[in-house]
């Protein structure tokens, strides 16, 4: 009887070791213990439909039929979908990187514009103060002139 270790069965079937161990644990696959190593017989892999051209016994008639594993096309579809998602992810990351660069450039431009705006506002306040200053000085001069003109002694 030909049997495989979990690593060999993984390569042969395409299912992960963990998936195979879970099937054994749930009783979906039978395994044997030889020299302290758990092995899965080829007949079990065929019965479970994990090998191409595997044999599976139908419950109604008890006949043994040959069939191609139902999981193989599904695995191919999943791999195709996974490759499509990977390509999509790469494209989205490129867009994100470009958007991040654009966002940084716009942020720097905004900071420069805000700094210039603050500088201009400060200059406007400075000019307004210069325009208002002569009025104060006039008022001050009048006060000083009036104080000097009045006899204090």
Describe the structure.
Helix content is about 65%, strand content about 10%. With about 150 residues, the chain is mainly alpha-helical. It folds into 2 domains: about 5-70, no CATH class; about 70-140. A 3-stranded antiparallel sheet has the order 1-3-2. Strands 4-5 form a two-stranded antiparallel ribbon. The longest helix is centred in the last third of the chain and has 79 residues, at about 70-150.
- How much β-strand is present in the residues? 5-15%
Shape: rod-shaped
Number of domains: 2
Per DSSP E runs of 2 or more residues, the count of β-strands stands at 5
**Helical/strand content category:** mainly alpha
Mean pLDDT: 79
* Biggest beta sheet summary: 3 strands, antiparallel
- What is the N-to-C succession of helices and strands? EHHEEHEEH
Q: List the total number of helices.
A: 4
Uncertain ranges: 53-70
Assign a percent range to the helix content.
Answer: 55-70%
Distance between the termini: 134 Å
Strand order of the largest sheet: 1-3-2
Give me the Rg, rounded.
43 Å
Annotation keywords:
153 residues; three-stranded antiparallel sheet; 67% helix
Please sum up the structure shown.
Helices cover 67% and strands 12% of the residues.
Itemize the secondary structure elements and their pairings.
Blueprint (H helix, E strand, L loop, with lengths): L2 E2 L1 H8 L3 H10 L5 E3 L2 E5 H6 L6 E4 L6 E4 L3 H79 L4
């Amino acid at each position: 009887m030909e049997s495989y270790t979990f690593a060999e069965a993984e390569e042969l079937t395409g299912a992960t070791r963990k998936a195979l161990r879970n099937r054994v644990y749930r009783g979906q696959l039978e395994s044997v213990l030889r020299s302290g190593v758990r092995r899965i017989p080829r007949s079990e892999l065929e019965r479970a439909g994990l090998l191409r051209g595997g044999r599976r016994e139908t419950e109604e008639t008890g006949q043994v039929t040959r069939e191609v594993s139902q999981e193989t096309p599904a695995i191919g579809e999943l791999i195709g979908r996974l490759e499509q998602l990977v390509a999509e992810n790469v494209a989205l990351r490129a867009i994100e990187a470009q958007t991040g660069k654009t966002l940084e450039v716009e942020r720097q431009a905004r900071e420069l514009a805000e700094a210039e705006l603050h500088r201009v506002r400060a200059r406007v306040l400075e000019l307004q103060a210069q325009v208002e200053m002569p009025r104060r000085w006039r008022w001050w001069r009048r006060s000083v002139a009036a104080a000097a003109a009045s006899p204090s002694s």
